[in-house]
Each structure stands twice: as C-alpha cells, then as structure tokens.
Design brief:
The complex is a heterotrimer of chains A (about 190), B (about 550) and C (about 375). Chain A is mainly α and about 190 residues long. Helix content of chain A is about 35%, strand content about 5%. In chain A, helix 2 packs across helix 3. With about 550 residues, chain B is an alpha/beta fold. Chain B has two domains: about 5-345, NADH-ubiquinone oxidoreductase 51kDa subunit (Rossmann fold, 3-Layer(aba) Sandwich); about 425-545. Chain B has a six-stranded mixed β-sheet, with helices on one face. In chain B, strand 6 and strand 7 form a beta hairpin. In chain B, helix 1 (about 135-140) packs across helix 4 (about 190-205), helix 3 packs parallel to helix 5 and helix 11 crosses helix 14. The longest helix of chain B is centred in the C-terminal third of the chain and has 63 residues, at about 460-520. Chain B is elongated. Chain B starts with 6 loop residues before the first strand and ends with a helix. Chain C is globular and about 70 Å long. Chain C has helices at about 15-25, 25-35, 40-60, 65-70, 75-85, 90-105, 120-130, 135, 150-160, 170-175, 185-195, 200-205, 205-230, 240-255, 265-270, 275-280, 290-310, 320-335, 345-360. Chain C has a single domain, classed as Ammonium transporter fold. The longest helix of chain C has 26 residues, at about 205-230. Classes of the chains: A mainly alpha (about 190), B alpha/beta (about 550), C mainly alpha (about 375). At the B-C interface, helix 10, helix 13 and helix 14 of B face helix 1 and helix 19 of C. Chain C: It is found in: Cell inner membrane. Chain C: Its cofactor is FMN. Chain C: Keywords: Cell inner membrane, Cell membrane, Electron transport, Flavoprotein, FMN, Membrane, Phosphoprotein, Translocase, Transmembrane, Transmembrane helix, Transport. Chain C: It comes from Aliikangiella coralliicola.
Chain lengths: ~190, ~550, ~375
C-alpha cells in the first residue's frame, strides 16, 4: 500500500511540475501570431468580388475559419487554394466551378461618352475606385481597381468593359524555363 | 607622387569565375571608324534605369543632330538627343529589343541631308578645371550620359555620391568578343583620362585607378604612356613654377593602372572592387560606402565629349563581330540604328542567322527581331552562325539533363552563392527559401550556367524566380491596398448608416416629444395650430353657406 | 534560340562525366578480375544489364522517354559500382534483387537522377548484405592462394545454379588445399580479433599476407583511376583526400593505442573497398555534401565511421554503411557550411539562418 502511495505521489508530483513548466512556457514563450482569420484574409486576393457568396474577402475568411470550403475563390485561383490548404493543413481541392472560373487579372474601364452619371457603379465598387458625381461622367482609378466585376451589372447603359490587363514591358515576367525548354514554344514574338 | 609605379598587380581576387574562350582578336585588330548614317532610326524613350523620358518634339517636326528630343522630367532618368538631323516620323510603340519582344515607346526619325553636329544644344562651359562641380554635373545630366558598360544607370546621379576617395575606371571588359573599351584605350587614352579627371574633380576623388585585365597589353601600354606624359608635364610645371610638390599633388588626383588576371566576370562592379581593393562592398550598400566610385571607360569618354566638346551622348562605340560579319571591328554607331541596317552594311548572310546577340555572349540578349535599334546599353553585337560549333557556342534551347549537384556552379559563382540550391528552389517554385538563399545577390553573370554539365539554363531560372517574387510582392501590395480601401469603405458605410440611424432616431424622438407636449400643454403651439385650423374650418363652412344661399337666390331670379 | 543568357557553354556533359567515371574504374576492375576470376566480369555484365533494364522499366512506367534519359549513363554506373562491390559468385537472383532495388527504390522512386538522397549502389549493397550476410561475405580467395579458381563455365554455373555441374559449391572453391576456408582480410582479422588473437599473430600468417596482397593491388587500381578522375576535374579533391586522411588518422590513433588489438592504417587503407569508396562511391555528387567545407566534413566523417564500424561493428566492411549514414547528414552539413555570400557578413548570415529556422519551427 505504501509503495502504491509513493508511486502515485511521485507521478502526481512529476505531472504537476511538468504541467506547471509547460503552463509557464506557454505563457512566457507565447508565439505572437495573427489570429487565423487575419492569416486567411492575407492569402485571399482582396478583390472583394463576392464570387464566393460573401460580401468581401474578410467575411469569406471568417467563413473559412468557421469551416467553409477553401475552394470558392476564383480570383485567388489554384495558387490561393494551395496556400490556404498549406496554412490550414488541408487537402488541396479543385476550384468550385459554381463560383466562377479563374481568369487573368482584369480592370474596369468606363466608356465615358456613354456614361449617364447614375452613380450606381460608384455605390457598387467595394474599394471606392470609381469617381464621379450624379449626372456627371464617372471614371475608374485603374490602379485601385481590383477587377471584381461588381460595377458591371448595376450599370443601366452597359458602358463598363472589363478588359484583361495587358502585359507591358514594365511588368513582363520571365517565363518558366520548364515551359520554354521546348524550342517551339519560346514566347518571343517575331514580327517581320 | 611621380615616383610611384604606374602599373600594379591587383591586390585582391574574387571567388569562382570562369575562363571562356575570348574571340576578341576578331574585332580588336581594326581601327575605330564611323559608318554612314542610316536613313531611318528608332530611338527608344527608355534606354536607361529609371523613368522613361518624355518626348518634347512632335511628329513632323524637323530636328537637328544633337537636339534634345526627349527629356527626363522627374526622378531618375536621362535626356535623349537626336542622333542625326531629320524629321520626326512617329512617336509610339516600336520593337526596341526588350527580352519579352513587347514594343516600347520610341521616336522614329527619318534622316535628312543636313548632317552637322550643332554643339549649341549643350550650354558652353569654361575650361572644366575652372568650373564648379555642380555645373559639370549639370552638363553631364544635360548630355544624357548613362553608364555605358551595360548597366545604363544615369551617371549624373552616380556622381552625386559624397565621400569618394578613389575613382576606379572599369576597363576590365571581361566578356568574350567585346573590344570597344580596349580599342578606345588604345586610340584615345588621353581623352579617357581627361574624362576620368573630370569625374574625379566632380566627386573630389584623390586617386584614379584604371582596372584592366592582363589580356589587353596594347591598351595597357598606351594608357601607361599617356599617364607618364601627364606625370612628366606635372613634374615640369612644378619644377618651373618652383612650387612645393604637395600643393600640386593635392589638386591633381594621382593616376595608376591595376592589372588583374583575365577571368570572367572581373568587369562586374563588385568584382572589380574586390580585385582592386581586396574588399567587398557590404550587402545593400553602394561602393561609396568604401569611398569608391566605379565608372566605365566609355562613360568617361562620353563625359569628356560632353564637357570638353559640348557633345551630347548620341552615339557610342559598338563592337560589331561574329563569324558572319564582313570587316568586324569597332564603330561609332548612332543610337536608334536598326540591326537591319547593320546587317546590310556588314554583309551578314541572313539565311545563316536566326538571331543576333546584343552585348556579350555571357550576359547579352538574343535578338531575333532585327528591327531592334542600338541603344545606350549596346556595347557589342554578335552575328554568329546559329548552329553550335564545338562546345563553346551553344545557342539552341534543348531539354537539359538533371542536376546532379556536382557543385561546379558553386565553384564558378563570383558571389559565393550556391547555384544548385537556387536552381532547386526556383525549379520547385519555393519562393521564400529561394530569396533566403540570396537570389537577389545574384548578378546574373552566367558563370554557373557556363560550367553546368547538365546544361541547365540556370540564369533563366534565377530571372524567372526574381520576376515571380517581384510580381508576388506587387500583388501583395495591391491586395493590401485593396484591403485597406475595402475596410475603409466598410467603415464609411457603417458610419453613414449609423449617422442615418441617429438622424432618424432624433427625428422620431422629436416627433414623440412634440406629441407629448401637445397632451401636456393645450395652450401651446399645437393648440394654436389647432385653433387656427378650426378657424379656417369655420370660415370655410360659413363661406359655403353664404354661397349656397347666393346660388339659390340666383336660381330664384 | 535561347531566351536567356549565357549563350556560351563549356563543360563536360553529365553523360560524359558518368562515362569517364566508368572508364576510371577499368584499372581497378581489371586487377579485381585478375585476382578473383571470371565472377567479376559476370557480375559487371549482369549488374549493368539489370540496372539499365530496371531504369528503362521504371522510366517507361513514369512516361519519361527512357531512351533519352538512359543516355545519361547514370544507371549503368550504379550497376557497375554494385557489380564491383558484391562477391564474385553471388547467385544471380540476389544480384537481380540488389540492382533492381537500388535503381527502383533508392533512385527512381525519389524522382530519378539528382533527386535521390542516398547512393543507390550502396542501398542495394546494404540490402543484400543485411538480407544475405553469408553469401555476401563469401569472397573467393585471391589468385595467389589457390590454383582452384573457378573457370568461366564454373563461375557461370555458380552464379546461375549455386553449384557447378560436378557438384562443387562456392565454399568448395573458397576452401584451400589445407581445408582452410578463406575469408576477406577484413573479415578474417575481425573474426580472429573476436577470437582473442593478437594482430601480430594474424598478420604474420603467409596465407593471410598473400590474400591481403591481392586486395592491396585492387585498391591500388582504384587509386589510379581516382587520380585520373581528379586530374580531369570530374571529382574534386575534398572528399577523397579528407576521407583517406581521416581513415589514416583514426586507425593510426587506435593502432598507437594498442597495436595488437587494432590494425594499422596501412591495412585499413589497402583493404576492402577503401579506394573504391573514397574515389567512386563517396564522391557521388547527388548524395554527397555540395559545399567545399561540407565536403571536407563529409569525407572525414565517412573515414572516421569506416574505421569505427570495421573495428567495433558487427560487419567487416563499412564503406557502404558509413556512406549511407553520411548521406543522411548531408542536408544538415550543407546547411551549416554555406559559404558567405559576397558582401554579407558571416554573423549576419548566420542570424538570418537562425531566424529562418525559428520561423520554420514556429510554423
């Protein structure tokens, strides 16, 4: 009986000491990190397009943190899903087609002579990238536009285009060497 | 001072490096000469690091040779002058030899008959020894001079750095085929020296060191002769004027030549510095932190032309070489001259060539669109047969073999990186570790790819990695901005909603209050209104009555 | 046309590197053939065929254009190295298992050439050694000892059927005229030491000396080949030099400590696969350390382990174990021996590394 007590007491003591050490360490050496919602939000592309069914990226981040699927963000695309899967330690899944397709970055352009100045697009823009006043022509601040498409449906005269942003020599990127190791596919335009 | 030896051996050495076959004798035999002007030129608006220049001429305008046609308006940039007299044919996108093959903005000129350099486009100066540093620097800025070694950094900005003790003249010219600096030093050493003295005066440097590889003995001896003459001249003035040696030595920077063993890439700025001083430029710092300024031979020659001859930078010495070139050599070629013009002039067989190399074979660029013009960065153009001869001229792209981690690339890397690791991370697109391996310390010299037994296009992998990382950073910044704007909008909407709600609440409260008031205080405002309303009612009723009686009376009549 | 510079290229292509290594093996292999008979030749041919077919098979399954990839000669080299490492009369099915395991599991399953963390030939060798310890240590005595070397036909029969048509087994050939079964010198010394015999006693035996003589010449052959590789810059000096120096020093110190219990440096350097290991196996670039300093540490550690395992371990030969153990340590060695990048200060770079590790650990 005494041995049993000694053993129990020893184990309890060890458990207590180790427990308090761990407890102390978890307080003292606490890893300061973003709350998970912020970390998810940092991965999302911030187009605020709402294709995921949420009114913006932050709400979707909150939804993911609450357990929603990570494949509902077309602008983030495959890379975004991969990053989210890595962060949340989940399986990489294919993009949910019902939300839309991944496309190249776009920018909204208002055909200004057709604009009637209804301000509907201004109200729809999630990042305040359209300027203008009632009955006056509106225009898009291209550098602030996220290409979310949200201004297109409200326009009563359909004067907003969403062209793909064209690569210029300034933002041209070197192609993946693996894709050009085949001599046929070198993307150098030969115009003669 | 005059007793110091003119020629010294390099003190330092740099890690790695390779010894590619030189091919320099193809082009360094003939004397420098000029070419007849082409009839059509395309002058890109961006020939330098920094912002693109803004055109200040209009289509159809006649410009004279040397006239300013595009100027740098803000920030880092450089002026561009008309290389020939002629008419502005168009201003717009044109193929200018960007690696992407995408067109960039350029001015197209059609040559006319009057060709004479009008020096009035640069302000006249006193003799440079009597001028202030600021005026000299302005002159260099106006002349549109940029680093002609290939980096094309605006020289005026580089000359602004303070606390410079030593000006190193980079005459290494370590790339195979290129000989323009070599020829320039052989034929005009005194002009290059004068250019270097002007630069030294601007930054108050006390010594000028010519750093040169030992494979250019003729250039070294002509430089040595020129320096000896200058030293003798200084000595004689000192002797004749009888002044103490020190005062004169204090005003004139000393001149020396440092000879480095031939090894690629000794001409890289950081490698040159390590060779000459034995020191490394600390990470993220400029050579100025060691009191050093490095300038290329051709740049100094253009400074000489601008300050002494009031000539803006409109042409440069270009090595035209390769086994398809008739009369290879070094030529003064106006900027904007198209490769097609050179192909005609040098009788290059177009059937045998699918691309030319602009710059050297190690760091240059392959151009298959021959409409590409010569720019400020073009120091060499190679027209070689496209098929590979032996092992030294591999130009086709083919699937490479697997990396066997032999680390030959590591042995060759002049910045002591681990190229095999860079390749590993770039190939597998692991951008974060790639950056931590020191990707942005890579100078893209190509020594690693040169020695790779598996013929992996390593530099391409680094460039791919660099541009992807830059893109990701830009995207992140954009997303961050969008996030902030979105959050601000949410806040604004929330605030507006709240304000509206407040307003409604206030109004509702007031109404309520008024209703209450009415109950409590019948003699109040509301009561008065009610009484007034009543009065109106009564009056209306009375009016209606009298009217009906009137009506009936009328009917009775 | 290449898109990116450099447009110049000059080096020995990878497939030629492999070919040169194979060429450099010839002197050692020839001497081995001279001393140990036709079995060497049979092994080389069998292993080469097995290795190449295994590679072809997997590449075919992986849809990787086998003809193109096989041109890099790396599978052939793996086969040849394994063929030289196994005893001359090993049954064919064991050779087959070892080679296929080496190519498929140690190389192709990791992604093929350049991606395998372990030396494939040594993985195959160790698999065989652990699975079939008796057969894998059944080396023929060297030619000077026995007039009874198996002929070409007998060797083939031994390999194919484990006995000759006249009913002789491997052990019959290994048994000398006086009924003594000869083991390799390393094996012999180990056994005798375990039995409590003194070095002076073991080494003085004529039979032993004659046998050791054969192994010494084999090692000499590989040394010649290794020096040829060094001069052609196919391999760099760091690994072989540090490895041999480390063997020399470690065994020398032990030998000084007690001459009778520990064999001399000379014995260690000229026995077993020392030279083959130093110049051909440890230098396999794929699985070895890649930084210059790292290679010194890598080689020296292998040398140290070789002597320790040979002296205190359960197996007589230790090159394979030592190489595989250090293959495990390679990423760590490489991480801590990174050269200082131009313009970086050593301390700063280390700090950055630590930070990187810290964040990695936190994640």
């Amino acid at each position: 009986m005494q041995e049993f007590l000694i053993a129990t007491l020893t184990l309890v003591t060890i458990a207590f000491v180790c427990g308090s050490l761990l407890g102390f360490a978890s307080v003292k050496f606490k890893v300061e990190g973003n709350p998970i919602v912020d970390q998810i939000n940092d991965i999302l592309p911030q187009t605020q397009c709402g294709q995921c069914g949420h009114p913006g990226c932050k709400p979707y981040a909150e939804a993911i943190a609450a357990g929603e699927a990570i494949n509902r963000c077309p602008p983030g695309g495959e890379a975004g899903i991969k990053a989210l899967a890595e962060l949340l330690d989940m399986e990489v899944v294919e993009l949910d087609e019902s939300c839309g397709e991944e496309s190249l970055p776009r920018v909204a352009v208002i055909r200004e002579d057709e604009c009637i100045g209804c301000t509907k697009c201004i109200q729809a823009c999630p990042v305040d990238a359209i300027v203008g006043a009632a009955k006056l022509m509106h225009t898009v601040i291209a550098s602030e536009c996220t290409g979310c498409d949200l201004c297109v449906p409200p326009c009563p005269v359909d004067c907003i285009d969403m062209p793909i942003i064209e690569t210029t020599s300034q933002d041209w990127r070197w192609p993946d060497p693996k894709t050009v190791s085949d001599p046929q596919v070198i993307p150098v335009k030969v115009v003669t | 001072m005059t007793d110091l030896p003119i020629i010294e051996k390099a003190k330092g050495h740099f890690h790695g490096g390779v010894h590619p076959q030189e091919f320099k004798s193809i082009s360094n035999q003939a004397e420098i000469s000029a070419l007849p002007s082409p009839s059509n030129l395309v002058i890109p608006l961006q020939q330098h690091i920094g912002n693109a220049s803004q055109p200040i001429v209009n289509v159809g305008e006649t410009v004279e040779k040397g006239q300013l046609i595009a100027s740098c308006t803000s920030g880092l940039g450089a002026n561009i002058h008309a290389p020939v007299s002629g008419i502005v044919k168009s201003i717009g996108p044109h193929h200018t030899g960007h690696p992407s093959g995408l067109p960039t903005a350029a001015i197209e000129l059609e040559t006319n008959d009057q060709q004479n350099l009008n020096s009035e486009y640069l302000p006249r100066l006193n003799h440079w020894r009597e001028e202030t540093s600021d005026n000299l620097r302005n002159c260099i800025k106006n002349a549109g001079i940029v680093g002609l070694g290939g980096a094309t950094f605006p020289t005026e900005a580089k000359l602004k750095t303070a606390n410079i003790k030593t000006l190193i003249v980079n005459a290494m010219e370590c790339e195979p085929y290129i000989t323009c600096d070599d020829r320039l030093l052989r034929e005009h050493p005194e002009q290059v020296i004068e250019g270097s003295q002007i630069a030294a005066k601007i930054v108050n440097a006390t010594e000028i060191i010519f750093a040169i590889e030992d494979n250019k003995p003729e250039a070294i001896s002509s430089l040595e002769k020129a320096i000896r003459l200058i030293r003798e001249a200084q000595k004689s003035t000192i002797d004749s004027s009888g002044e103490p040696k020190n005062s004169s030595a204090g005003t004139e920077p000393s001149l020396r030549i440092v000879i480095a063993p031939t090894k690629y890439p000794s001409g890289g700025e950081k490698q040159t510095i390590e060779l000459v001083t034995g020191k490394q430029v600390p990470k993220d710092q400029l050579p100025a932190s060691l009191g050093l300024l490095v300038q290329n031979v051709a740049t100094l020659h253009s400074i000489y032309n601008a300050v002494v001859n009031q000539k803006p930078l409109t042409e440069r010495l270009v090595t035209i070489t390769g086994d398809l070139v008739n009369k290879p050599g070094n030529y003064w070629i106006p900027f904007g001259t198209k490769l097609t013009h050179l192909i005609e002039t040098f009788e290059v067989d177009r059937k045998k060539i699918s691309a030319a190399i602009l710059g050297g074979p190690m760091m240059g660029q392959s151009i298959s669109n021959f409409d590409t013009p010569v720019t400020k960065s073009t120091n060499c153009i190679i027209f070689n047969r496209t098929q590979s001869n032996e092992k030294s001229w591999v130009i086709e792209t083919k699937p490479h073999q697997a990396c066997i981690r032999c680390s030959e690339c590591q042995q060759a890397c002049p910045v002591d990186l681990l190229p095999q690791q860079l390749y590993w991370f770039s190939e597998s697109k692991q951008w974060e570790p790639l950056e931590k391996q020191g990707l942005f310390d890579c100078i893209e010299c190509g020594a690693c790819a040169y020695v790779c037994p598996s013929e992996i296009p390593l530099v391409h992998y680094y460039r791919f990695g660099k541009s992807e990382i830059r893109k990701n950073k830009a995207n992140q910044e954009k997303a961050e901005k969008a996030k902030q704007r979105f959050e601000f909008r949410e806040m604004r909407l929330a605030r507006a909603k709240e304000e509206r709600a407040m307003k409604h609440k206030k109004a509702a409260e007031e109404r309520k209050k008024a209703a209450n008031n009415q109950q409590e205080d019948p003699s109040g405002k509301q009561a008065a209104i009610n009484r007034a309303l009543e009065r109106v009612k009564q009056k209306k009723a009375g009016l209606a009555q009298s009217q009906t009686t009137q009506d009936s009376g009328e009917a009775n009549e | 046309m290449k898109l990116s510079s450099p447009f110049f290229h000059h080096s020995l292509p990878t497939n030629k590197v492999m070919l040169l290594v194979i060429l450099a093996l010839i002197p050692g292999a020839a001497i081995q053939f001279y001393f140990f008979g036709y079995g060497v030749l049979i092994n080389l041919i069998l292993c080469s065929i097995f290795a190449v077919t295994a590679e072809y098979f997997v590449l075919y399954l992986r849809n990787r254009a086998p003809q193109e990839v096989l041109k890099d000669n790396s599978a052939l080299l793996t086969g040849i190295l394994l063929g030289l490492a196994i005893p001359t009369t090993l049954p064919i099915w064991m050779t087959f298992i070892g080679t296929w395991f080496a190519i498929i599991f140690a190389k192709q399953l990791y992604g093929g050439l350049g991606l395998n963390p372990f030396n494939p030939a040594m993985v195959g060798y160790v698999l065989l050694l652990i699975s079939f310890p008796v057969e894998m240590t059944a080396w023929m005595p060297s030619r000077d000892l026995t007039a009874n070397q198996p002929s070409l036909v007998q060797s083939l029969e031994l390999v194919l059927f484990s006995q000759t048509s006249s009913g002789l087994t491997v052990n019959d050939f290994r048994t000398l005229a006086d009924g003594y079964t000869m083991a390799t010198p390393l094996d012999h010394v180990k056994t005798e030491h375990v039995l409590g015999k003194m070095s002076s006693e073991i080494f003085s035996k004529e039979l032993f000396q004659a046998n050791q003589n054969g192994w010494m010449w084999v090692n000499f052959g590989y040394l010649i080949g290794g020096i040829y590789l060094l001069f052609n810059k196919v391999i760099r000096w760091q690994i072989p030099v540090s490895l041999l120096a480390s063997i020399f020093v470690t065994s020398g110190v032990l030998n000084l400590f007690d001459e009778e219990l520990f064999s001399s440096s000379w014995f260690h350097l000229t026995s077993g696969a020392t030279m083959l290991g130093a110049f051909f196996i440890a230098t396999d670039p794929v699985s070895a350390a890649t930084t210059p300093k790292g290679r010194l540490i890598y080689g020296a550690s292998i040398g140290f382990l070789v002597v320790i395992i040979r002296t205190f371990g359960g197996y007589p030969e230790a090159i394979a174990f030592a190489v595989l153990l250090l293959n495990l340590a390679t990423p760590t060695i490489d991480h801590y021996t990174k050269p200082t990048i131009y313009g970086h200060s050593k301390d700063q770079q280390d700090q950055d590394d630590d930070k990187q590790n810290g964040t990695a650990a936190n994640e």
